[in-house]
């Protein structure tokens, strides 16, 4: 069986490209070293392989059931959850005093990569729980933290994020769930939420929902939104569940993939007795949620990258072992068939996958490192760069990860289309990622309408500085000179395009400037991934060029070739996109409803 | 509920773009007129809507089951099959004397479009049966025709196409199934076939398998392959099943989509008593099969186009009725939300779908018309053009139909990812089409390695002549002048690329010339679809510009805008593809197994 993620590649990313050990210079991480990182990573890979992977297909084929009273999931999910909790990973990012291990986000993301690669559905439960716990930790008061966090750290409670309503998806400002102040200082929540992942299950003894709602009398729009903690079971002060709260599962939704994670419709306050507790200040709910959503967006990007990666590893393994056909210049039908990896078109499909998924994983790990630099290192510039990159971190892997999975199926042919092989499930699972935590459309508006221009474009400048540094380093290697030249041309195009769009937006042409934002998001994504490929190729050469191990030089050659592929085959598409953007093409804007 | 296929669009394609009535000038079709065409089309749409559509999701959720003895499918499939058979469509393409209706391929394809749009899985059974019957009719002897065809025409027997083996997929020349001559003049078949759609079922009382196998002692490679008729039940002279033949269902395969069609592993001759009957001459099996496969390839293209079309209609309907969000320049949170079709990015996703699926449907109907011109009209040039186009007819819709379905999901957002809406099934069903009847890789080699150069490039010249005619006509309309100019540039690029590749191949550089063939296939596809868009826009203007009906002028405006979208947004990507092709880029060719 192929690896979930190439261990050589993970080692390269963590230790060479993103130099995890360097983070140990930060006070928060000073008790760590490469040994502790390796050890937690090994544990994660082992638990993922032993307890998450084996039931991935089974959980897909046996979805959670709801009998009108209770949800039931296959027992393997609970076992996997318990192993995850016992490993300490649920609280690993938190401080020693809170019972955590002060693990850098970079290393923690690397750990999480294994779980999602092994089983995206089951990994969804800890992902959501950690995100919810982070939010409570950041904005909850001491009483809330001490009451709810211990159980979320040791696996007794799970967490959810309850934003969407049946009539409110992307436009969160329009939500209608109400919070009615109660004399005891808490609130009574009333409304319905939809597409809530993990909204009910039989894995944990309690579930902590983080719900956004509007306090009675609060203004319309985003400024009237507050954040509430709504437990499935009301707890005593020690956090032990003592009484069922008035939040009911109205039904399960049935998804194309991610079938092992419940997707729920939840009714809050059908009996007017749903207790909710305000987190932080009233009216700031959405800004709190966005903290969680930004982390969730990195998590979605990472998930999309590694589901893509999993399919790549499976299709590579298949291509290496499946004999079929002969070279175009081989005419003898008696000659031995070649393995399909020898066909140029199969290599194209594998190389494209490699460039998408390894590039995407690098991007997500960069984002995680920026979290560390910003949060543990106090580096505001890293925070600014992270802010700019977040829409791309969410969307590039979510777009190209499924493309990689599509190619993985194609490499397997008819076999790839059957559930007897794992790549079709990857394809279905990964299709969720371009949707949740903000669609591409939303991300592209966030990038082009907001992030690019914050603090006078500070993020842009930081990004360009890093890119220039990479180009300079890469330009010193003869293998990369051509690629640096090609890259230079296209990054210039990106800059000119950004300028043109910025002027239009500044002069108030909002509609025209934003109409083709999806193109800009893709263009920016390609330029960033191509930059990371230059960086990876440069670092591979610097590290391995003089190695005497063939494994090392092969690895290096692969990185160079994937950089070639991405920069020569994919990146140049930005020129056409730039043309449409800078000419403010009106084709989509002018299209009329009646014309369809 | 939205229509399966826009009836105005179907009418436009059939009667304006491809002028079905003109075919009635051919002797074979002279008893038809527009009224008979309309009548058969109305019947097809009605049966598709009443008997195929209602169980589409049910058949997907309730796959055929195999208990080790028998297969069972949900009863609705048999009912639908019976209605299809009773309509006369199974034999509609055949002559009056054979009990058919001498219906043109163009009109028949239009009929079939409704069935696949409604329910691809159930439509698979008649598709396969008609293809098998065509083959028997073309190459079988009189005894075979009179014994087997009547039951295939009235629905008592279904047909299959048994090519693939567990170790033999695309490389058919390597097949190992044996045919041993028997003293009674028939053969005994021995071997295993895989991925045989409809290989067993409980819908018809007999199944006629068309099996390729190697007669004992025949040469290796494709020249040793013969075609056999192998019935599930051996029949008497009247074609009635009298005795079980030695062909057994070894198991069912479980697919991502098309779940309602059985996909089977079949064992022939486990007891050394599988009777098979040679069709035509020994050693010519593959060339016969290719006749059927070419029709099957058009059928696959059509299926991919209309599954894409179905998703488009569903997402258009959703976008028109789902309020969410506001315009970028609307700041008042109290203002009414707009329907999502008003967002430029949603329009982009709908316009892209429209351009892919209406373009693909037009291409398939062009292919069907060429079949009529060639077979009923005896026009050899039409046959040459069809030969050239077939790889594109198979692959463009199969590539862009799923892309359309992907966009349809994206338009619906979270809802689109659930099985509560039909678009996710479209996405899964359509993923088969880039694989079966020859992958893109295979099609691209067929196009670039063979079809382009047949008879000194006669097909190319015919295509260019038609394209020039369209450009000339379109250039007369002010609305299209800009598009004709853009098109001219890109078609020139295609011609130059074709020349460069042709020279390389002629000078023996097979490996280099064919390495990036997938790019060429896509490039050619884009140029052909863009041509059809020019043609459709031109004919829409000619027909509707002076209409006083707003419905007509809206329809015309939509065609012009979709042509704009495809030509300005999608077509220009060929420039970059041409650059890679004409520079004989070696990135994929040079990649090594060990470097992955």
Automatic annotation (TrEMBL), chains A, B:
Cofactor names: FAD
Annotated InterPro entries: Acyl-CoA_dh-like_C_dom, Acyl-CoA_Oxase/DH_mid-dom, Acyl-CoA_Oxase/DH_mid-dom_sf, AcylCo_DH-like_C, AcylCo_DH/oxidase_C, AcylCoA_DH/ox_N, AcylCoA_DH/ox_N_sf, AcylCoA_DH/oxidase_NM_dom_sf
Ranges for domain Acyl-CoA dehydrogenase/oxidase C-terminal: 283-445
Keyword Coiled coil listed: no
Superkingdom of source: Bacteria
PANTHER family in alphabetical order: ACYL-COA DEHYDROGENASE, ACYL-COA DEHYDROGENASE-RELATED
Designated name of the protein: Acyl-CoA dehydrogenase
Source species: Thalassolituus oleivorans MIL-1
